């Protein structure tokens, strides 16, 4: 028996074993954090600010590690591209009760969400459950009912998620005092051969 895939994979989860420079992110956040429309109940973000983390020296090795993973996703999605452009990156801070509201990333081809610090209890990531309405007529088990609008992905420190910018996602509220620190990058796959 072989499973037959007729839709592309949408979400990848890796773990960046070397880890991130937490002190650099904390320093950046101390200067740049502000309220943001997507952040709720105390969540803060550096979205839209200068000095994006993907350009920092301390993240050079991570960006080198990341590129082949981006290419795997773009290949899976049949993207026709000549260049990958990092259009923006930022960092969010979630303390107890804070969370990110459901949102998408506009015209962004691919989103990278890296977890610089994600202590146990700081909440998981959830994606919109696609195709949910297709099984409306079928009775389903309690854990996967038609009313389950979200699919949860467990998160720990140094996890790196890749997914398309159009896929609606949100975070669960943190239940603990220790902060969750995220590092998100927007990537566009562009075809310079097209005019
Ligand atoms: Fe997001």
What can you see in these coordinates?
The protein is of the alpha+beta class and 195 residues long. It has a single domain (12-67, 80-153, 163-182), classed as Jelly Rolls (Sandwich). It is 14% helix and 30% strand. The protein has two helices and eleven strands. The strands form three sheets. The protein has a six-stranded antiparallel β-sheet with strand order 1-9-6-11-4-3, with helices on one face. The longest helix is centred in the middle third of the chain and has 17 residues, at 60-76. It is globular. The mean pLDDT is 89. Bound molecules: fe (ii) ion. The site of fe (ii) ion has 5 residues, from loops.
Mean pLDDT over the full residue set: 89
Instruction: Examine the coordinates and then state which fold CATH places here, giving the name of the CATH topology.
Output: Jelly Rolls
Tell me the distance between the termini: 45 Å
Helix content: 10-25%
Give the SSE order as H and E letters.
Answer: EHEEHEEEEEEEE
Ligand inventory reads: fe (ii) ion
Determine and state the CATH class. Mainly Beta
Low-confidence stretches: none
Count of individual domains: 1
Coarse shape: globular
Write down the Rg. 17 Å
Number of strands: 11
Arrangement of strands in the largest sheet? 1-9-6-11-4-3
Major β-sheet annotation: 6 strands, antiparallel
Taken as a percent bin, the fraction of beta residues is 25-35%
Output the structural class.
alpha+beta
Number of helices: 2
In the CATH hierarchy, what is the architecture at level 2?
Answer: Sandwich
């Amino acid at each position: 028996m072989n499973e037959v895939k007729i839709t592309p994979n949408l979400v990848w989860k890796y773990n960046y074993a070397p880890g991130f420079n937490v002190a650099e992110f904390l320093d950046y956040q101390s200067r740049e954090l502000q309220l943001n429309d997507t952040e709720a109940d105390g969540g803060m973000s550096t979205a839209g600010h200068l000095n994006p983390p993907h350009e920092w020296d301390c993240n050079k090795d991570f960006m080198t590690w990341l590129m082949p993973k981006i290419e795997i996703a773009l290949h899976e999605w049949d993207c026709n591209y000549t260049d990958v452009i990092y259009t923006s990156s930022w960092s969010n801070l979630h303390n107890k009760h804070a969370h990110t509201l459901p949102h998408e990333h506009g015209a962004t081809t691919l989103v990278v969400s890296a977890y610089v610090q994600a202590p146990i209890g700081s909440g998981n990531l959830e994606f919109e459950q696609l195709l949910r309405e297709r099984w409306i007529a079928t009775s389903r088990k309690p854990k996967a009912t038609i009313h389950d609008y979200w699919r949860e992905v467990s998160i720990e420190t140094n996890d790196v998620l890749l997914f398309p910018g159009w896929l609606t996602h949100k975070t669960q509220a943190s239940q603990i005092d220790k902060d969750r620190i995220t590092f998100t990058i927007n990537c566009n796959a562009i075809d310079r051969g097209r005019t």
